[in-house]
Amino acid sequence: MGDSSIPAAFRFEQFNDYLTFERGLSPRTVSAYERDLTRWWQSLRERGVDDPAQATPELLREWVFALKEEGLAATSIRRAQSAVRTYFRFLLSEGVLDVDPSERLESPRVARKLPDFLTRDEVTRLLDAPDASKPLFWRDRAILELLYASGLRVSELTSLAEPSLLLETKLVRIHGRGVRERLVPMGSSAVSCLRRYGALGRPKLVRPESGEIYFLNARGLPLSRMTIWKTIRAAAPTSAAAATTRACARVAGTNVGRGIMPCFELTFGPHGRGRAARPPPRSSTPPARPSAVAPTRAYEDTSWRYRYPQKRERTPM
């Protein structure tokens, strides 16, 4: 990894290759693993440990307690523990260790809270917020419409290539985490804005170094995560303090494409086999239509009887 003083016995470089090539994790995820493991190794060095075989469950518990004393959030501690557990499983698979010292390591509890979401009125004001007099109007409008219609992650949006937009079939091909690929539907409004941006906005931004990346900044380079965040915050109404890409994804889960259409996605694994998302379980009563766009996966409410026919109760003779 980055620190050259780490002993070779820890096999951090091999673990990095394992995450990258065998697990197929993104560079950002691999960097997060690297930071957490380097921090863990520094705590071992302070205790005179120079080999992973010397790491005991007691040392791991002391490391967790030290993270708590530093004021780290429970989610950050759990992420660091996940990195260490994955690392020890790698050492076991390589035959370096016979016992996993992290097997019984307890994780701190994380308080569960309801996710933030936007109401229908807030979504409408969010999509109508970009100023039509500005040069980047169609780019910003297309970004907001696509986020709302498909629920993409920020990393997926910034790396979206032009050939991945299947506008004729109203689909977008996403290369997500690892080697997974999926097809996600989008509505007519998003398709219309993407076409206008491709015809009126993107040609003014394209440079020789732009490549196939669809959303570009004023210099013709791919957008950064911070630019996407600023675009959403600038368009967010004052009452929608929770406007984020994940909030848009939750809205997309219940109202795909600004219209009523089945919310499906087809996922392709490393061997190219498709897998459709599971439909919701059967219910004896029709789902109640919420007054706000709640963070749930939604199908067309009015078609529940036809999608999932109910069994009729037999009357005694």
> Strands of the biggest beta sheet: in what spatial order?
1-2-3-4-5
Query: Structural class, from secondary structure content?
Result: mainly alpha
Q: Uncertain segments of ≥5 residues (pLDDT<50)?
A: 256-284, 289-312
Provide the helix percentage. 40-55%
CATH class of the largest domain: Mainly Alpha
Largest pleated sheet:
5 strands, antiparallel
CATH topology of the largest domain: hpI Integrase, Chain A
Tertiary shape: elongated
CATH superfamily of the largest domain: Intergrase catalytic core
Please, how many helices?
11
Beta-strand segment tally: 5
The average pLDDT value, as a whole number, equals 79
- Taken in chain order, the helices and strands follow as HHHHHHHEEEHHHEEH
Radius of gyration: 24 Å
